Amino acid sequence: MTEPSNRSHEGEGASxxxxxxxxxxxxxxxxxxxxxxxxxxSLAVRLAASVDARLKGIFVEDENLLSLCGLPFAxxxxxxxxxxxxxxxxxxxxxxxxxxxxRRVLQRVAxxxxxxxxxxxxxxRPLTSLATFASSGDTLVLRAPEGTAGEIGRAVRSATHEVxxxxxxxxxxxxxGALFAGAASRMDRPAAAARMARPIAAVDDGSSIGxxxxxxxxxxxxxxGLPFYRLPIxxxxxxxxxxxxxxxxxxxxxxxxxxxxxxxxxxxxxxAAGCPLLLLGAGRDLQGASINPEDLKKETGR
Length: 302
Hints:
- The chain is an alpha/beta fold.
- The protein is built from eleven helices and twelve strands.
- Strands 1-6-3-2-7-8-12-11-9-10 form a ten-stranded mixed beta sheet, sandwiched between helices.
- Helix 8 packs across helix 11 and helix 9 packs parallel to helix 10.
- The longest helix is centred in the N-terminal third of the chain and has 25 residues, at 88-112.
């Protein structure tokens, strides 16, 4: 359930005009005050800056936590060790204070990266609610926390198959430090940065879906100033894909969501390959790609 519109915020003073961004796709990311969400925000803002997209941050008030307030046996322990009943009003105030902190962090990092941004508050289940804010062609950034493989899988399926958005997924334990982060260093020290850069790899089995995947990944690599690598793999063997990505030292795997066998395959593949995974939404075609193939010709001169 989305909260009223007066709880939405638009970024001011960003580098690009709102009119320009009407035709650009967005990078959507969930926000809270935990380190996992801050890692996801860091990745999202770097991606948005690399492809000149708008950034949308969502803070979800967890309806499960709020429901605890109605249980007579529910208690909380304060930092001082005091045991007290959970009060709905106090929990809601705490959540809204966290939301304001998250908004300020979003404003700061987006402004530093010169990225236009917006912010919304919703109420529901933190992961599954995020897909409702994405549209076809948007990219939803998910950083998988501990113990939520099933929920991550459902969120990925909802976004890629129902909303037909793309999902940039980072499994737990997978680092994101260098991905999309080297634009400035490549300008200052291009040779050194090129040696350090890990390629964007596309899973391509030679089918039309595989070709679309490769075209998208190559365009993204050109826009982000990163190497591109094609993984010619037939079938849905996640272990084979992960092994090939590791041999290529891939920093990101691009794969069509149709290639997944189960809802949990995405997180498993990211964990096994040791890098983030960009899943292209089901039913994507070249005309619907959020990075148009014409951009590739402009960037590479081909």
